[in-house]
Prior knowledge:
single chain, TIM Barrel, two-stranded antiparallel ribbon
Amino acid sequence: xxLADCHNVQDFRRLARQRLPDPIFHxxxxxxxxxxxxxxxxxxxxxxxxxxxxxxxxxHVDMRTTIMGRETALPLLLSPTxxxxxxxxQGERAVARAAERAGLWFGISSLATVSLEEIGRTISxxxxxxxxAHKDEGLNRAMIAAAKAAQFDALALTVDTIVGGxxxxxxxxxxxxxxxxxxxxxxxxxxxxxxxxxxxxxEKFELPNLSAHVAAGSNVAVSVADYLNNMLDQSLxxxxxxxxxxxxxxxxxxxxxxSVEDARRAVDIGATAIMxxxxxxxxxxxxxxxxxxxxxxxxxVGDRIEVICxxxxxxGTHVLKALSLGAKACSxxxxxxxxxAAAGEAGVDRILTKFRAEIERDMKLxxxxxxxxxxxxxxxxx
Length: 382
């Protein structure tokens, strides 16, 4: 399979499967427990039908929107994801450059493999820093200060990972960061020599936003679950979230909100936006899909806060369905991580080009000239 054969997210998933050792692929692809929620995230969109209009004069459509104060070319945000240089040696650098060319928001994780400072000086397009609240308050303050110095446009506090989800594929494969050989993984690393040579011969793997404070994840191999369980602040509460928002002082998003009550609290503490997210199904298996929660949260707070639907997005029609319910935009991680793993920067460019073409084509087929024309009248439920 070649890059030219990839026309959608699932095509890129298949190519990534060919090019990655098993522990790395299953880290991206896997989720918690029985992986019910991961599957549900995408299936939720299939229960909703679009009702198009014809003879609407849609030779030209406007796909632009404004998210957290920055205009973007599409209502799509590339969610922050950890450890990207494990998936392809270009890592966050490739995704950042592709996002800038596409005119999209790009999110950087606390567990990124490229520094906030480097991304800040590399791209001028909208940048989101995703903060994991650590037990080490000095580390939290240092990361916030680094994001400010790098002129990031917004901070997203992830609120659904105070403990790690039960990711059984990672347990079976022995996945750690940095990777280590195990009897079960050695053959898979050997069968993917291109990945192995790139990992061993290019710059040393590290987590530069953390490495001055903690060795775990950069110099000491740990599982993601162990890192989350041991390093993150399990006492994180609304008062601490409000204090982080005040310390940041700019556009502020809560990532991982799923209930109406929590959405209202987000408004109360002055959040700019919320991401409806279950962490790609990687935390609490059996939780609802963000798209299934979207309507009731829009009814409760949609006129007071920006709502981003995060998770399961694989098609332009998924984006239009979420916007028809009132979401400001959609976001996702696997939608570009498979492409990064499959072909680096060229892969990310290609999947973003595909999304742009799908959204434009689908808007024309829906008979709408701008995103503002989308509404619940466009939808019917099965």
